[in-house]
Amino acid sequence: MERKITKKVMVGKVPIGSGNSISIxxxxxxxIRTYNKALLEEITALHRLGCNIIxxxxxxxxxxxxxGKLVPVSPxxxxxxxxxxxxxxxxxxxxxxxxxxxxxxxxxxxxKVREIIHAAADRNCAIRIGxxxxxxPLKLRNKRNRSEAMILLVEDYIxxxxxxxxxxxxxxxxxxxxxxTYNVNKQFSQNFNYPLHLGVTxxxxxxxxxxxxxxxxxxxxxxxxxDTIRVSITGPLRDEIYAGKEILKMLNLxxxxxxxxxxxxxxxxxxxxxxxxxxxxxxxxxxxxxxxIAVMGCAVNGPGEASHADMGITGIGKEVFIFRKGEIVRxxxxxxxxxxxxxxxxxVINEKTNN
Length: 355
Hints:
The chain has 355 residues and is an alpha/beta fold. Helices cover 44% and strands 20% of the residues. The chain has two domains: 9-250, Dihydropteroate synthase-like (TIM Barrel), CATH 3.20.20.20; 258-354, 2-Layer Sandwich (Sulfite Reductase Hemoprotein, domain 1).
């Protein structure tokens, strides 16, 4: 597909829009009580898995104080999510966050937004105009066409930002209904040139969320629409990152990383593919080289899939076989197979890095 070229907005050191790589975002899933080593380690782990930007709910000055400590040491940009209280937006900008998200449906009067704009301009802080269909103001909430209502509100906000000569903005238009999300983003893209953050909000647990998100975001991305994404999942944050990466890979919008081919369980299985993939998944997600891996349960599909994969693994009884391009390179056992597979995989990584 041919991507729409939107305005370039910097979120920390991450460029959004203007044909740059589509970034993957997530949102911290609990209150931030204190700044400590464990918090930084968790954020660093999410970044290693492939997360590019992380958002935090800033509900108090205490939250913002913690974000201020996190900003200079975080491996990725920090976004403060603000609702209702414009003063928290001002304090977040002062604390040095790389972007703030404000919701046009609840942030308040125009003069409050102007104060936020002025503060962001002084600090070179990006602003996300983040509108959810469920938080439309009363005057628009009962409008029959929700997509149209969302467009009307975001147009008013963009005009307000333009009146202050501020264009360092990213827009998100999300709804729990996937068709509303698709329609409103497509309509916005036809009329505006600002980068879009895509997502289906309140999309549910892993299976419903991934299905809705892949269907909705996939169509938009395939039409060249969208500059950054979040797959909103009721579940572990790492699943949001896994899902986002897979959607981008499926559309050839992210070339690097592991392409995993793995069997479901069946009565023929001689190797526990579910166990192996579960044990290795976090490790696989940290690899940036473009490598295909086949995890096969038996000899029916295994030889064919393993013949074109960079690496493969299967087993019969107590024996485990590690393949490279279909050729067995190691015979090992279940207790040793993870370590030996990593060892062999590192050889592939080294070869690709040096070529």
